[in-house]
Amino acid sequence: MKTAKPLKQLKLSVPAQDTPISSFLTASGTFHDGDLLLNQKGLRLISEENDSLPSETKEIDLQFSLEDLETIKVIGKGSGGVVQLVRHKWVGTLFALKVIQMNIQEDIRKQIVQELKINQASQCPHVVVCYHSFYHNGAISLVLEYMDRGSLVDVIGQLKTILEPYLAVVCKQVLQGLVYLHHERHVIHRDIKPSNLLVNHKGEVKITDFGVSAMLASSMGQRDTFVGTYNYMAPERISGSTYDYKSDIWSLGMVILECAIGRFPYIQSEDQQARPSFYELLEAIVSSPPPSAPADQFSPEFCSFVSACIQKDPRDRSSALDLLSHPFIKKFEDKDIDLGILVGSLEPPVNFPR
Ligand code: ATP
Ligand code: MG
């Protein structure tokens, strides 16, 4: 016989006469006390028992559903789908909602959602948190931490180049994210590129789309079909050899060099006619000597850092952990470089369509 589930003891206190109303009202105009939420949307019971979320989002955990999110605007578009800025109607928290359209079989879909559930348990301040994932109407929706200064694409779009002290600060944070992914989670990101390195007004840099390229590939029927750009891909991946964590290090080196010199390292000029074709580019990455930072324009520490990342043979590349103590990172560590001020001085990311 089924035993009845004990009823949860709800917490609700009667406010004392002199309690200011502000202590019950959240920023979104929601009245919140104990387990109850009340606003113009109605009455909601909530749970405060989940410890895996930051305090401001804890209260929305269990009842998190797509209906609770209202769209503010579209903030980006990638090969897999659209990213929107959304607000949680109940608590006012902003999120980025990434909706990926995919026509896939039930079993692959279940596997993907399962993988996402594992991935979203990120406990690193330099990896974008995925709070929830839903499968709804043939699309997978990811509720992500909102990074209000966009990606490195937006930053270099305005600044053209990033100076070494700021690059060191960016690099350190990306490396901390990579140390977490490589050394703690034992996963390869596979798609480190400027649009997957996001920035916020506090000057925090975080890696996103961890697991998404693998997910898109599996939805295309083949686990290792890559969807996205090949520009930052390590030679061993392009040539179909086995690859490991070091392929992410190559990609990081390419991103950092691009941010320093203001153009993609394999492209010599802005002239469209002079640009290599897709196949010429792949051929160059696999067969030509690797690009390097010009020694007459950059510090020896920076040149050495880039060279420690962009080595054709993955065994010659440094690990994320080693790079964290590279002289280029150490040089600016105690200099109080405020990336928040730099990105705060830029125009907010341009809205889609761009
Ligand atoms: P691709 O799909 O080819 O990998 P992409 O990385 O640009 O390219 P998306 O991951 O869909 O595509 O992201 C599109 C854009 O949306 C990003 O470039 C970024 O500007 C923005 N974006 C994505 N996630 C967030 C987020 N969590 N917070 C703020 N902006 C975001
Ligand atoms: Mg992306």
UniProtKB/TrEMBL annotation:
<comment type="similarity">
    <text>Belongs to the protein kinase superfamily. STE Ser/Thr protein kinase family. MAP kinase kinase subfamily.</text>
</comment>
<keyword id="KW-0723">Serine/threonine-protein kinase</keyword>
<dbReference type="InterPro" id="IPR017441">
    <property type="entry name" value="Protein_kinase_ATP_BS"/>
</dbReference>
<keyword id="KW-0808">Transferase</keyword>
<dbReference type="InterPro" id="IPR011009">
    <property type="entry name" value="Kinase-like_dom_sf"/>
</dbReference>
<keyword id="KW-0418">Kinase</keyword>
<protein>
    <recommendedName>
        <fullName>mitogen-activated protein kinase kinase</fullName>
        <ecNumber>2.7.12.2</ecNumber>
    </recommendedName>
</protein>
<keyword id="KW-0067">ATP-binding</keyword>
<dbReference type="InterPro" id="IPR000719">
    <property type="entry name" value="Prot_kinase_dom"/>
</dbReference>
<keyword id="KW-0547">Nucleotide-binding</keyword>
<feature type="binding site">
    <location>
        <position position="98"/>
    </location>
    <ligand>
        <name>ATP</name>
    </ligand>
</feature>
<dbReference type="GO" id="GO:0005524">
    <property type="term" value="F:ATP binding"/>
</dbReference>
<dbReference type="Pfam" id="PF00069">
    <property type="entry name" value="Pkinase"/>
</dbReference>
<dbReference type="InterPro" id="IPR008271">
    <property type="entry name" value="Ser/Thr_kinase_AS"/>
</dbReference>
<dbReference type="GO" id="GO:0004708">
    <property type="term" value="F:MAP kinase kinase activity"/>
</dbReference>
<feature type="domain" description="Protein kinase">
    <location>
        <begin position="69"/>
        <end position="329"/>
    </location>
</feature>
<dbReference type="GO" id="GO:0051707">
    <property type="term" value="P:response to other organism"/>
</dbReference>
<dbReference type="GO" id="GO:0004674">
    <property type="term" value="F:protein serine/threonine kinase activity"/>
</dbReference>
<dbReference type="GO" id="GO:0005737">
    <property type="term" value="C:cytoplasm"/>
</dbReference>
